[in-house]
Design brief:
254 residues, two-stranded antiparallel ribbon, zinc, Creatininase-like_sf, 9 helices, four-stranded parallel sheet, alpha/beta, hydrolase, 43% helix
C-alpha cells in the first residue's frame, strides 16, 4: 500500500510520478470530481469532494495509479436555494474533464478514471461515452452496482433511492475519513422523500426543508471504512479493463 495523499490532495512529487510511470504502460490517472453544495446543517459544503477524494485515495493506496487533485465545483444547480452552493455549467465541467484527459495523454498517461462524488454531475457519463467512442481510455467510477455491493458489505440499511443526500453513506464515509468536519445534529436529521420525480424541474427545496434526504442517524465510521474498502476492491475490474484489455477493445471498436 502506498501513502499518496495529504488530506484530500496528492502529496506526490514529480519524481514520484516519474517512478510510478516507469515501465508501466498504459498508465492510469484517477480524477476525483465533487461539488460545493449544501449538505444540511451537519456536513460541509465540500462533502461530495471529500467523498470523491476518500474513494480516490483508497484506490491510489491499492493500485499503481496517478492520483490527481479534485475538481471541487461542479453541477449543483438543484441545491441553489441554499446559501453557499456554487455551480458551474455542464458544458464547463465537460470541457474541464476533456481538457484534463488531453493533457494527461500528452504526458503519456493514456487512461483516466473519473471518480464522481455527486449524483448531479450527470454530464460525466456523456464525457466518458464520447471519449470511449473516440477510442480514448476513460471510465466513470463508482457505478450504482459498485455502491450496492459496498453498501451490502458495510451493512448499510438505507437503500440507494432513499439515501439521496447527506444520508447514511456520506455521513459514514466522513465519520471515517474526516470525522472532524461532521458536526452534531446528524443523529436526529433523518428525512425521507423517495418520490422525487420532479427534482430536475423544482430542485431539492421542493422535497426537503433541511437539505437532507436520507437517514444520517444510521451512519458510522465502521460503515464508512467498509464502504471504501469494498469500492477499492470493485475498482480492480476497471483497472484491468483500462490496462490489460485496452488494446483488444480498441481493435474491436475500429
Amino acid at each position: 500500500m502506498r501513502s499518496v495523499a495529504y488530506g484530500p490532495l496528492p502529496a506526490d512529487t514529480t519524481e514520484d510520478v516519474r517512478a510510478l510511470g516507469a515501465g508501466a504502460a498504459p498508465r492510469v490517472a484517477v480524477l476525483p470530481v465533487g461539488s460545493f453544495e449544501q449538505h444540511g446543517p451537519y456536513l460541509p459544503l465540500a462533502t461530495d469532494t471529500l467523498v470523491a477524494c476518500a474513494v480516490a485515495g483508497e484506490i491510489a493506496g491499492a493500485y499503481p495509479v496517478h492520483l490527481l487533485p479534485p475538481v471541487t465545483i461542479a453541477c449543483s444547480h438543484e441545491h441553489a436555494a441554499w446559501p453557499g452552493t456554487v455551480s458551474i455549467s455542464s458544458v464547463t465541467l465537460h470541457a474541464v474533464v476533456r481538457d484534463i484527459a488531453a493533457s494527461l495523454r500528452r504526458s503519456g498517461v493514456e487512461a483516466l478514471v473519473v471518480v464522481n462524488g455527486h449524483g448531479g454531475n450527470y454530464v460525466l457519463g456523456n464525457v466518458v461515452q464520447e471519449a470511449s467512442a473516440r477510442g480514448e481510455r476513460m471510465a466513470l467510477f463508482p457505478a450504482p452496482e459498485d455502491w450496492e455491493t459496498a453498501c451490502g458489505r458495510a451493512g448499510v440499511v438505507t437503500s440507494l433511492l432513499t439515501d439521496m443526500h447527506a444520508g447514511e453513506i456520506e455521513t459514514s464515509i466522513l465519520l471515517h475519513a474526516h470525522p472532524d468536519v461532521v458536526r452534531p445534529g446528524y443523529e436526529s436529521a433523518d428525512f425521507v422523500a423517495d418520490d422525487r420525480r420532479h427534482l430536475l424541474t423544482t430542485g431539492m427545496s421542493a422535497y426537503t426543508d433541511s437539505g437532507v434526504i436520507g437517514r444520517p442517524s444510521l451512519g458510522s465510521a465502521d460503515k464508512g471504512k467498509d464502504i471504501l474498502a469494498s469500492l477499492a476492491d470493485s475498482f480492480g475490474a476497471y483497472f484491468s479493463l483500462l490496462t490489460e484489455g485496452a488494446e483488444s477493445a480498441g481493435g474491436e471498436r475500429g
